[in-house]
């Protein structure tokens, strides 16, 4: 089967996007997804998305991890698929689409930055030195002071495959304060089973844990290996966060065809 694809990236987090509003890729298998995401034999990506039609919203986002299996919410993927829709001629003040964790809204500002509204967070488990929370995907946020020197793959894999998390898996973020009241984040992603250049839901989870204001509006600038993102939100208290926006660039890399 010959597949037409688009390659997009958001802060180095890269994705294969397939146009499926005509349902021509409904029969795509997990093995085919895994093959396309392979960086040596396929296109190469951290994940693959189908843009599906939706009866009442602009579209549906169906996300697969690089291992070929359906994944939980991907923040940078959500921003990229909105940019794809815009590039294909869908012009909206506000984009509304369905993802695995529910309804999302997004917009594209005058500078081309895509702002994606994430789900509210209503539970944070705080422990000495780390926190666990779900921002559409489950995240472990480790508070660190030497993020640049950490072996993220080894340290992240140790936590992800520990007895507590082995069955369901968890994404592991290493975060520290950076210049100008920002933070620096590196992430080990389950499903990719490697460090990615950035992770939207991981950046979001980390930013919530580094609020500048005890309550009310916060904006946290986030540096990742793949580029800069920002997270805006209202902090209600230490466990409740609302109006969460993940903001940053999303760009088409190339388009092509692949035989699977």
Class by alpha and beta content? alpha+beta
Q: Fraction of residues in helices?
A: 10-25%
Strand content: 35-45%
* Rg of Cα set: 17 Å
For the record, the count of structural domains works out to 2
- For the record, the CATH architecture of the largest domain stands as Roll
CATH class bucket of the largest domain: Alpha Beta
Mean pLDDT, all residues: 97
How many strands in all?
17
CATH superfamily of the largest domain: Diaminopimelate Epimerase, Chain A, domain 1
Query: Biggest sheet, open or closed, and with what strands and sense?
Result: 17 strands, mixed
Q: How far apart are the first and last residues' alpha carbons, in Å?
A: 5 Å
The number of helices is 4
Model regions low in confidence, pLDDT < 50 over at least 5 residues: none
CATH topology of the largest domain: Diaminopimelate Epimerase, Chain A, domain 1
Structural summary, described in words:
The longest helix has 13 residues, at 75-87. With 260 residues, the chain is an alpha+beta fold. The N and C termini lie close together (5 Å). The radius of gyration is 17 Å and the shape is globular. The chain has 2 domains: 2-118 and 250-259, Diaminopimelate Epimerase, Chain A, domain 1; 124-245, Diaminopimelate Epimerase, Chain A, domain 1, CATH 3.10.310. Helix content is 15%, strand content 44%. The mean pLDDT is 97.
